[in-house]
């Protein structure tokens, strides 16, 4: 599925980490929310409120979940899950084009 | 109006100029198309196919249309029009958060 249909899109961008992460918010009829965005090469830590599924359209990164020592690598076509009320470290090696699904 | 409703959104980002410009494409039921995006501080030249209305949510830039010598300044809350089959120089002084309406 290359597009989302029948959604509402917030016009204003979300710009985080001095522009290292840029996203736009999509609101769905069932009350769920996703963001579509880009993370440029960087080392960042994200905090989560809701749980997240990060779906990668393109790019390459490694991530480490809070409380874990192991880094796991992901690239375009893959996805990873982050628990809610937590955090993860993400090292973006090639610009990530992503969809973030909030749980 | 802070959001667009009942639109289709292309999941994949448009990344131009080595990441200086990032946008996502919105498709409307009437067949028109807009992009929502960000331009980071930079000096760029954009070519246009269709005519464009650039609506600025935030940021500050100056632009010079093809064939003109004058630079005009725009900032959040303002918009400018660019003819089709043309080009414009844009100097982004503060990160632009924009909606581009294609005519």
UniProtKB/TrEMBL annotation, chains A, B:
CDD domains: cupin_PpnP-like. The keyword Transmembrane does not apply. SUPFAM superfamilies: RmlC-like cupins. It comes from the Bacteria. Its EC number is 2.4.2.1, 2.4.2.2. It holds the Pfam family Ppnp. GO terms for molecular function: guanosine phosphorylase activity; purine-nucleoside phosphorylase activity; thymidine phosphorylase activity; uridine phosphorylase activity. GO terms for cellular component: cytosol. Transmembrane segments: none annotated. It catalyses: xanthosine + phosphate = alpha-D-ribose 1-phosphate + xanthine; guanosine + phosphate = alpha-D-ribose 1-phosphate + guanine; thymidine + phosphate = 2-deoxy-alpha-D-ribose 1-phosphate + thymine; inosine + phosphate = alpha-D-ribose 1-phosphate + hypoxanthine. It is an enzyme of class 2 (transferase). The keyword Transmembrane does not apply. Keywords: Glycosyltransferase, Transferase. HAMAP family: Nucleos_phosphorylase_PpnP. Belongs to the nucleoside phosphorylase PpnP family. Catalyzes the phosphorolysis of diverse nucleosides, yielding D-ribose 1-phosphate and the respective free bases. Can use uridine, adenosine, guanosine, cytidine, thymidine, inosine and xanthosine as substrates. Also catalyzes the reverse reactions. This is Pyrimidine/purine nucleoside phosphorylase.
């Amino acid at each position: 599925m290359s597009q989302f249909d029948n959604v509402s899109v917030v016009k204003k961008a979300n710009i985080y980490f001095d522009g290292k992460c840029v996203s736009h918010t999509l609101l769905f009829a069932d009350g769920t929310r996703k963001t579509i965005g880009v993370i440029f090469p960087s080392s960042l830590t994200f905090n989560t409120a809701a749980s997240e599924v990060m779906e990668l359209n393109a790019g390459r990164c490694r991530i480490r979940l809070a409380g874990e020592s192991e880094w796991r690598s992901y690239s375009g076509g893959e996805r990873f899950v982050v628990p809610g009320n937590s955090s993860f470290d993400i090292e973006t090696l090639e610009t990530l084009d992503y969809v973030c699904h909030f749980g």
